[in-house]
Design brief:
homodimer; 267 residues; seven-stranded antiparallel beta sheet; three-stranded antiparallel beta sheet; 12 strands; 27% helix; globular
Chain lengths: 267, 267
């Protein structure tokens, strides 16, 4: 899995790159079959939406689900990260599934992920990024990710710590700044079927709206960081801000299907 | 302003009809110039979003704004109502501006307006409807109205009184029912520029999401009812559920521009 020079240039210009149908329906079925069981677990890594039992986020899933452990080493996700971050040695700073659950999925206010990685985790440089894999279709109705294109070029913006809007504390950006950024860059919301991937810069300003539809909008996020850019403050638990900086060892491209076959053979 | 037989058939089939750019930019400028002054007023008719000062709804505006009094008698809005409701004698059951304010605009859960008109106001039949005029552009990002097409054909659905989600109490429909309706009819969100109009049946199931963008999504709603279908319970104030059943006397088609001219001449 190699991005073309044109794709790399687009990422650098816009701050994101959308790869529709990067994974097959078969691969997505393997992953999705596991998700309800994960969200159903009562454990510290599974956060709920404020005031409801609906799942918001399942953290560190690569350590408590075999199939997601495999996904976390998938070359179709990790290799583009090595290209865009310019290093073969990447580690998983954060790995999570965001549910944006049917009917109850709540907003994520406008923010840059690097603001949190810097403020909370003391990550030296914005040499980290997100790879989002759509487990479910993202459409115009179910709270798709919204980006302000090119906003990553401004570097880290001033942010305030929002601990009230949702159950998850977040360093968010004020309205005047967002208004100015949107006047310049507009808003985009890449939409596509399950299996699509969305790669975006750690400083790209993004948000997502509520989900009132019957369609949960599950997304897996790999937050990849260069091993030479590891965090230096450890106030968040390791399952939110990973303290294990071991470089990711990629698996073969057919790893998901092979693992499902092995599991079936044993059963 | 006469709807064609094809437009009437489409309304009856789908439960709604979208008329892009029904009003000119000049007419919309006249209306929009007034809106900030209206939302800024501290009066019982202006409701705020829960937990913020952002306006949610300004009710009964036709009684405290001259230009909106004119709009409430506009033939491009009222005449289609007479055609679709099959009566020349209509009165204004409710007239409001919904703000869906930039950054703070909150959700409206799935509901039928007739459920509220029946439960709260004892309106005999669903022979009432909404005419929504977009003051601002409605786009995919700023919480556009979402409809479940054809859901009006099922009549009034069972509803529960939601007094917690937002500042405005609403008779809302349960998740299982919405899931079934969406499986059958899908979801649509008509989008368009300021000046577009959206006509929909009192039993059409609708909702709208949050607005995280810098773009307020102001909409005027005329809820027209047949005079022979007037409400029979008066527990809501008249500025929410009008107790004045006088038939609307339509003005000429150029009434907005003429009124602005008269005002300018006086000034």
């Amino acid at each position: 899995m190699q991005l073309t020079p044109a794709q790399i240039a687009e990422f650098e210009e816009q701050g994101y790159l959308f790869l529709p149908r990067l994974f097959s329906a078969k691969e997505m079925d393997i992953l999705n079959a596991e998700v309800p069981r994960l969200f159903a677990q009562q454990r510290p890594e599974v956060w709920r939406e404020k005031g409801t039992d609906a799942p918001r986020t399942a953290f560190y899933v690569q350590t408590w689900s075999e199939i997601f452990a495999t996904l976390a080493r998938h070359p179709r996700l990790v290799e583009p990260g090595t290209q865009l971050l310019g290093s073969d040695k990447l580690y998983m700073h954060q790995f999570k599934i965001n549910a944006k659950a049917a009917f109850d999925g709540a907003v994520w206010q406008w923010h840059q992920d690097y603001a949190t990685w810097y403020e909370d985790d003391d990550m030296p440089q914005p040499r980290a990024m997100n790879i989002a894999l759509f487990l479910a279709e993202a459409n115009e109705f179910n709270g798709p990710l919204m980006f302000i294109p090119k906003s990553h070029r401004l570097g880290r913006l001033e942010a305030g710590h929002d601990v009230t809007t949702t159950s998850y504390p977040l360093w968010t950006i004020d309205h005047a700044t967002i208004t100015r950024l949107v006047e310049e860059g507009g808003i985009v919301a890449p939409k596509g079927p399950s299996g699509s991937a969305l790669l975006f810069h750690g400083n790209l300003v993004h948000a997502s709206g509520s989900n009132l539809t019957p369609w949960s909008r599950w997304i897996v996020y790999l937050s990849l960081n260069r091993c030479d850019n590891a965090i230096r403050r450890f106030k968040r638990p390791t399952w939110i801000a990973n303290q294990d900086f071991t470089p990711i060892d990629m698996l073969p491209d057919d790893c998901l299907v092979q693992q499902a076959r092995r599991k079936q053979a044993v059963a």
